[in-house]
Design a protein that fits this description.
Elements: E1 7-11, E2 14-18, H1 24-44, H2 52-66, E3 68-80, H3 91-98, H4 103-114, H5 118-128, E4 129-131, E5 136-146, E6 150-160, E7 180-191, H6 193-196, H7 200-214, E8 217-218
Parallel strand pairs: 2-5
Antiparallel strand pairs: 1-2, 1-8, 3-7, 4-5, 5-6, 6-7
Helix pairs in contact: 1-2, 1-7
Length: about 230
């Protein structure tokens, strides 16, 4: 992972890392597109927990209609907490290498970002978890925003064999200590800026309104309301 990618923003169930030095226009396009795609999928399909495959297809289709072009993608399923049966490179690992993404670095940066605010993890789980008495289902997305802009997104669906209340926040993203099954769906997208330009202002205004209604975005780095700079 590029060391410049260090800041975290939460958009629904997506934890997105981006460089503070990224162009504001590119950041805004990515933030608005992620929220828009989630809301469109919710509207057209319903809960991501009920019919995940249909939900995810609608989610990607929304990006396409905004002008995001798919560059690469992969799918992988793993049993959590168990060693691999063979040494062959798994699809997810191959995608990470192709996109020059260090998995450990990404997870460390996300944990560090969540550490800035006690409310961050609660916000992420509010949108990304369905908890039951004896087990939990997580549908979270980890993402990197790069110049262009391009988005590298990895959706993680976990069926955990324990309630979420029994899992320490410190190990939530550590598959070595979790039990159950995880499904990974990764995609890389690049924005056609010329196509997107006609939607930019309208989309930004609409997502500003939707966020005010649903509080989908959360910035763990933001100062608390009423705080003053010295």
């Amino acid at each position: 992972m590029d060391s410049a990618v260090e800041r975290l923003i939460l958009i629904g169930a997506t934890a997105l890392l981006y460089s503070p030095g990224a162009l504001e226009e590119q950041r805004q396009a990515a933030f608005d597109s992620i929220l828009y795609a989630q809301l469109v999928a919710n509207k057209n399909v319903g809960s991501r927990f009920a019919e995940y495959e249909r939900w995810y297809a609608a989610y990607l289709d929304a990006y396409s209609k905004l002008g995001w072009i798919k560059l690469a993608g992969t799918h992988d399923v793993k049993q959590l907490g168990q060693p691999l049966a063979h040494a062959q490179t798994q699809p997810l690992e191959g995608w990470l290498r192709m996109r020059s993404i260090c998995q450990e670095g990404v997870l460390a940066a996300i944990r560090a970002g969540l550490g800035h605010s006690a409310e961050g993890l609660s916000h992420l789980l509010k949108f990304g978890i369905q908890a039951q008495s004896q087990h939990s289902t997580l549908v979270l997305e980890l993402g990197l925003l790069k110049p262009g802009p391009t988005l590298d997104l990895c959706s993680v669906t976990m069926q955990l064999d324990k309630p979420i209340s029994a899992i320490s926040p410190d190990v939530l993203l550590d598959e070595a200590v979790l039990g159950g099954e995880a499904e990974f769906t990764a995609v890389s997208l690049a924005l056609n800026n010329a196509f997107f330009q006609n939607r930019r202002d309208e989309l930004q205004a609409l997502m500003h309104t939707k966020n005010a209604e649903g509080h989908y975005r959360f910035d763990p780095h933001a100062l608390p309301a009423g705080a003053q700079h010295e």
